[in-house]
Design a protein that fits this description.
Layout: E1 12-17, E2 25-28, H1 30-35, E3 43-47, E4 53-60, E5 68-71, H2 73-79, E6 86-91, H3 117-126
Parallel strand pairs: 1-5, 2-4
Antiparallel strand pairs: 1-6, 2-5, 3-4, 3-6
Amino acid sequence: MADQPEHKKKVNLQVTDAVNDDNSIIALSENTMEALQLFRGDTVLVRGKKRKDTVLIVLADDDLDDGSARINRVVRHNLRVKHGDMITIHPCPDIKYAKRIAVLPIADTVEGITGSLFDVFLAPYFREAYRPVRQGDLFISILPSTAL
């Protein structure tokens, strides 16, 4: 009998709250990262409920239990999950760099803000950060006195 290709096992992780408030990060324990053959800075596709998914960067968290994943409130919203729900992650090594993206503000978040939204919010958020973006995702760009 011919050798069958080895299929990767589906990896379920329980959602817990993020320590930092970065919209681009998923924190995993060292053991979970090792089991999945992931390294700090790797990109993963994260699937939540209702066929929602997003792309995040992996970081290690020594204080996190195996089988758990830390994601912030905004990422949980994008995935339609809450604390205690299960998510799945898949390595996503071949992500391409975007040449251009369209970012639209939510109307009530820009009321009363003057000046260039790009210069004030978007450029500092994306500059030198190499953030993965997924069509349809929301994110929050924060300044010391304002959130957009």
